[in-house]
Amino acid sequence: MAELSRDIVPEVMASCKAGAEEAAVALGRGLDTEVRLSVGEPGSIDAQALPEELSGPGLAIVLTVGGTGALLLVPESSGVLPPWYGAPDPTGESKLATLAQELGVTLLPGEYMPDDFKAGRVESLSDALTRGGVSDGAASLPLELQRPEGTPATVHFIWPASSPDAVIAGEVTPEAEPQEAAAQEPAPQAPPTPQGATDPEEASPAQPPPGPPSAPQAKGAGRKRAVTLNDLPNFSRSLLQIKLPVVVTLARKRQPVGQILKLGPGSILQFDKSCEETLELEVGERPIATGEAVKVGDKFGLRISSMILPEERFTPVRKR
Predict the structure, then answer these.
(1) Backbone angles phi, psi at 200, to 5 degrees
(2) Dist. CA 192–CA 314, nearest whole Å
């Protein structure tokens, strides 16, 4: 498989210019805004002279091609990121993953089709570059975003990254910090038993009066650590590696065996289904979702519109 290198700047520029309109639509849909995209002049990365906006937080989109990666960095200071992008719900996670996939297909040349897509918030975009193994001299291509309202913004398209998996995976979740602080706080000691006490009630330690919890305890209370795939048991994680066939059904039709035997090159099958109707997504021969066909670059995809809940089964309870 072809890997990204610094020598493919002309090919990437041509691909970005050809897919600028579709990439702008994908960014607008994924970030809940309306933008136009234009391609700037290419350059190279200098760790000592990075743009100031890359020192802060932002959205990192990682496109992995073989053993290398390309990064799309959107600074939070640009103002184009939605408020939910830092802690997205399942719908937001799906939107960011779809955005990463669409940008990978539209911005990279066809021979460098990404085989993995990731997107997530990082506390420091410059630190993300370091974790990703982006060295001095790496190619950089600015993608300028114009909005009907607001100042222009820049998306930094940078490659190659030798460790693309570490860009987002190395980020520390803020939810873990209060728990670590609470775990290090020493437990309160019970007051000593009064000397010379003979009555059991007098010998029992005095109970502190009820009151509001201390500040460190109140801050740590109610915080839940983010659950990741690494928290699952080994047997559960092994199940997640099983590959299943994913099939999109365009239409179905039943015909007698006699008519099927008459089929040959040039035969046309007519289906009782409109082109605007929804398509069905099956995984392991089980329908799980419906959606509509969309064009992604020079290929077609399926945009999921609704999920199909599993069939409920009820068993009557009988007395023996």
Answers:
(1) -55, -35
(2) 59
Inter-residue contact 194 to 205 (CB < 8 Å) = no
- Phi and psi at residue 260, to the nearest 5°: -65, -35
Nearest to 63 by CA among 29, 36, 97, 17: 97
pTM (global) more than 0.85: no
Instruction: Please answer whether residues 76 and 123 qualify as being in contact, where contact means their C-beta atoms are separated by less than 8 angstroms.
Output: no
DSSP-assigned letter for residue 84 = G
The answer to whether 232 and 193 have CB atoms below 8 angstroms apart is no
Same domain membership, residue 247 and residue 142 = no
Pairwise CA distance, residues 71 & 12, whole Å: 13
Q: Which domain holds residue 49?
A: 6-169
Nearest to 38 by CA among 23, 50, 53: 23
Domain membership flag for residue 259: no
Helix (H) or strand (E) holding 257: helix 257-261
Q: CATH no. for residue 283?
A: 2.30.330.10
Q: Give the three-state DSSP class for 96.
A: helix
At 61-87, the pLDDT tens digits run 999 998 899 999 999 999 999 999 999
End-to-end CA gap in the chain: 64
Amino acid in the structure at residue 233: P
Give CA–CA dist 320/318, Å, rounded. Answer: 6
Instruction: Give the pLDDT of residue 202.
Output: 45
